[in-house]
Specification:
With 445 residues, the protein is α+β, with helices and mostly antiparallel strands. Strands 1, 2, 3, 4, 5, 6 and 7 form a seven-stranded antiparallel sheet that branches. The chain has a five-stranded mixed sheet with strand order 9-11-12-14-13, covered by helices on one side. Strands 8-10 form a two-stranded antiparallel sheet. Strand 6 and strand 7 form a beta hairpin. It starts with a helix and ends in a 9-residue tail after the last strand.
């Protein structure tokens, strides 16, 4: 009986498929059945050691030929199973096993030629039982076969331990119920209250997950929807020249497509679809487009009129990206944060203050660097280490979700970039993004 690597992988896949359908004794029985059929062996035995001496094995599942047969007690003395227990590892006799163990009556009666046994253990290393396969013919690939049996034994051991834990929990539950009956109805009510609390915790966790998803969707869609709303308001202006009309229409179209890309990306992640293929992308064009669309959509007329913009984007810089729309959203999130800081400082300082934003894209040796710097309110030193943490925000309640920089950092790192924030409270904040752009990047790690 020969087992190759592909067959081994199919067997492991079988374990996964059985995991999805069954558990407990039904799971182990089905696993034994599939193992016997896949390996084309006559006998498969799974049994537990009889305590306390552990000199015998009580079979729990015994496959012989074409089906399961009644379980037996198997004396370990003089059998190859003794070597499995002593060595606590897989033991293989690919031929002549009954000659090696002449005192093992079962091997003689069943005309066994080959044997592989593997133990499965408690977490402390103590023996639970054995998985054994036997056949009337020699094994052709004993090394690969031993690995398969050892792997299956480990998985069966996990199920035995889980069953033991369940039985222990049931015993504890029965004891608690008996104690509750004996001690008064007050204790029974306390136990019921505990069960209700557990249900509430599970419910709260589900609600938290839903809330997390909702926050993410709301945050990602907020910017394109604001731009669409602002552009639509421009279109309602009575005196509107053709150029302004065209630009407003383009903004609505492009940011509608952005919103659709965001929803498509989230649905892809929810369905666990594989990432799209990476491609060489003109990062300069992506940054120019994002800045142009966003800066033209600023609704604060005073900020828009007083804002000093210093944009230095080197043309035709390319990067190897997996998620171009995601990187465009990163730029917009960072610029949005910068404009928020500028507006806040402008409210504090009045006309004596000139809001400034500096955006640059440069080519460095082996990588390209994007910098976005503002002279706004800055970030307090105590908050700086946590600004990229999920749900961490320095904005007042109701003004921030704490997801912008976290999402930005995740998207940059997904595209093999690095993301860094530096700041001094009251003076500036600078976001720096580096993307490697070597030709070696065409092979994803």
């Amino acid at each position: 009986m020969e087992v190759n690597t592909m067959q081994s992988l199919e067997l492991i896949k079988d374990i996964y498929n059985v995991d999805q359908l069954l558990s407990g004794k039904s799971y182990i029985q089905e696993l034994v059945h599939r193992l016997a059929k896949a390996l084309n062996v006559k006998y498969v035995m799974v049994g537990h050691a009889i305590e306390p001496e552990q000199t015998s094995i009580q079979t729990d599942f015994l496959w012989a030929g074409d089906g399961f047969i009644p379980n037996v007690i198997y004396d370990l003395a003089g059998s190859p199973c003794t070597h499995v227990i002593c060595g606590t590892r897989v033991n293989c006799y690919n031929s002549h096993v009954r000659l090696a163990f002449p005192k093992d009556k079962m091997l003689q009666d069943m005309n066994i030629e080959s044997y592989i046994g593997a133990p499965f253990l408690h977490t402390d290393g103590g023996l639970i039982g054995l998985l054994v396969i036997m056949d009337e013919h020699p094994f052709k690939n004993p090394t690969m076969l031993s690995s398969v049996v050892e792997f299956f034994a480990a998985r069966i051991g996990t199920e035995y331990r889980r069953l033991a834990a369940e039985e222990s929990l049931l015993r504890i539950k029965d004891s608690l119920e008996m104690l509750a009956r004996e001690r008064t109805s007050e204790l029974q009510q306390a136990f019921a209250s505990l069960q209700q609390t557990q249900k509430q915790l599970i419910s709260q966790e589900k609600l938290a997950t839903i809330g997390r998803i909702t926050f993410g969707i709301a945050h990602e869609l907020k910017n394109p929807l604001n731009i669409i709303i602002n552009a639509s308001e421009i279109l309602q202006t009575e005196e509107l020249d053709q150029d302004s009309f065209t630009k407003a229409a383009e903004m609505i179209q492009q940011h509608s497509l952005r919103a659709n890309d965001i929803i498509t990306s989230m649905l892809r992640q929810a369905r666990q679809e594989p990432d799209q293929q990476a491609e060489w992308t003109n990062l300069s064009s992506v940054l120019d487009r994002a800045l142009d669309m966003y800066l033209r959509s600023i609704t604060d007329s005073e900020l828009r009129s007083r804002l000093l913009k210093n944009i230095l984007v080197t043309p035709n810089i390319k990067a190897f990206l997996w998620d171009v729309p995601g990187i465009e959203r990163v730029f917009i999130n960072i610029v949005d944060n910068a404009l928020y800081a500028l507006a806040a400082k402008m409210r504090q300082n009045g006309t004596a203050y000139t809001p400034e934003i500096h955006v640059s894209l440069t080519q460095e040796p082996g990588f390209c660097r994007i910098k976005v710097r503002d002279n706004g309110i800055g970030i307090p030193l105590k908050h700086l280490p946590n600004v990229c943490d999920e749900f961490y925000t320095t904005k007042p309640a109701g003004e921030g979700t704490g997801l912008g920089l976290w999402i930005a950092k995740q998207n940059v790192e997904k595209n093999r970039g690095t993301f860094n924030i530096t700041s001094e409270e009251g003076f500036f904040t600078e976001a720096t993004i580096d993307f490697p752009n070597s030709a070696e990047l065409e092979v994803r790690p």
